[in-house]
Design a protein that fits this description.
The chain has 227 residues and is an all-alpha fold. The protein has one domain. Helices cover 80% and strands 0% of the residues. It contains seven helices and no strands. Helix 4 packs antiparallel against helix 5, helix 4 packs across helix 7 and helix 5 crosses helix 6. It is globular and about 55 Å long.
């Protein structure tokens, strides 16, 4: 990679990292966001000067930051954000934020890999990578939490076996993915069956993975607060 390409990649990764930082709770972002962004910029510069690649470092930083975003949002909800809200609403919003962070990370990773391999830029096509999957992720997470509560009779999230959680997540993803086509048939250059398979398959798989990921995170958080 040439020096110009390396600088362009660094600028792209800095912009993506700044987008990710916006997912932290507002008080946390106001206190630590600027310092975190500066640290990331310094590390990128050091790796460039040392002649090291940025791609693997950026992916690691994005993944670690996404985990921190989920953790801090859950802490904010428990301690500050919605103490007066009914427990069920707090749980649904917390689930939505968790799924939004997971989906936003995947959106950033997909956009980064796509641009690195093909040169196609999501941002240049007027689509914010943060919005691309974060907003549907939040919606899917809230719906999943509601469905789970009704289907399981209000049982605690950490009481459910992971395969059962994954199954319910897949069901939600399948139904909501299919709902897109129930509302109208999209215009596409590819056969309709292929478009349906890709979209519904993606939402089903992504929802199942998000359900298991949020369950594991919830159990870890619950264990921490029970000590």
């Amino acid at each position: 990679m040439s020096a110009v390409e390396n600088e362009q990649a660094a600028a792209r990764y800095r912009k993506i990292y700044a987008i990710l930082l916006r997912l932290y709770p507002k008080p946390f972002h106001a206190r630590f966001g600027e310092g975190m962004a500066q640290t990331f910029n310094d590390l990128c510069r050091e790796r460039k000067e040392a002649g090291k690649g940025l791609f693997s470092f950026a992916l690691w930083a994005f993944a670690e930051t996404a985990a921190g975003i989920i953790r801090e949002n859950l802490t904010f909800i428990r301690e500050v954000g919605m103490k007066k809200w009914p427990r069920r609403i707090r749980g649904a919003v917390g689930m939505g934020l968790t799924w939004a962070a997971i989906w936003a990370l995947l959106s950033v990773l997909i956009g980064t890999i796509t641009e690195s391999l093909s040169g196609y830029s999501i941002e240049k096509n007027h689509l914010d990578p943060l919005v691309a999957l974060a907003m549907p992720g939040f919606l899917f997470g809230v719906i999943f939490s509601t469905v789970l509560w009704f289907a399981e009779g209000g049982r605690r999230f950490d009481e459910l076996p992971l395969p059962r959680v994954a199954a319910w997540g897949g069901v939600v993803g399948l139904l909501l993915g299919a709902l897109v086509f129930a509302l109208g048939t999209p215009i596409a250059r590819f056969p309709l069956w292929l478009v349906v398979a890709i979209i519904v398959g993606s939402t089903t798989l992504l929802s199942a993975v998000s359900a298991v990921g949020s369950a594991l995170l919830f159990r870890r958080t619950s264990a921490k607060y029970s000590k």
